[in-house]
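3-oxoacyl-[acyl-carrier-protein] reductase (Leucocoprinus birnbaumii), 281 aa
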Amino acid sequence: MSTQDSKSLKGKLALITGCTGGIGYATAIALARHGCSIAVHYNSAEAKANELIGEVEKFEGVKAVGFQADLSSYDGVRKLYEDVVRVMGHPDVLFNNAGVLGGTIGPNGNIQDVSVETFENTWRTNTGTAYLLTQLCLPSMEQKKWGRIVFNSRYVFAHFDDRSSYSVKLNVNAFDRSVAAGTGGVVGPHYASSKSAMHGLLHWIANRYAKDGITCNAVAPALIVETNMMANPSEELGKRIPIGRFGVPQEVASVVELLVTNAYMTNKIIVADGGWTASAF
């Protein structure tokens, strides 16, 4: 495979989960600009999905179709995959972007407050379903000797809203806390471990399938406005970011775009946080 071939997305199909959120939406536009058709996954935001389909199909030769699925269950994943293959064909690009918090107890919370059922549900939704969807998409990529798999391993910062709970609304104290997948974060053990597991998963996949023309990476965004995980952040917090402002979904999408178009980038976790952390974890 030549490097030139690796950059061309014309005629390729990307399946993006959580496509109606800020990052998923922006990524769909970024890949469509390269001529890549988009399988638009959504759970409940059908109107937003239809809006995105209209935007994507403005690009010449690009198709977009919406697919509703509840990815909190393995049956939902299987249905999504089967629907996409039946309507659009086998995905060449998979962006595992959907996820849930599963409730928040904070870094000083009591582990007893996270039931094993909550732990299992969070793992299934964040990691298990992403694993299954990747497992389903890989054989076709392997046969074609071309594939791109990207995980969204979100950073999550938070602060106390009151004595009893945390909120993912950000304030200046957020930076004094850790991040989920790397150091435990502020949500809870269920969320942190589900995101950390993604890293081990991508490392194994990257090593195993690199010689088959398949790359596997992750983007770890933090401090990104216009997303569900970051509502009403304070201006003071923005000033403390080394770059001096919050990020926007298009800037995360550009990282995914890099990982999809570059055949030499694999086995990497790219942190997009305005320079707050010096390197990946």
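Residues 156-184 have pLDDT under 50 and may be disordered. The first strand starts at residue 13 and ends at 16. ok done for today
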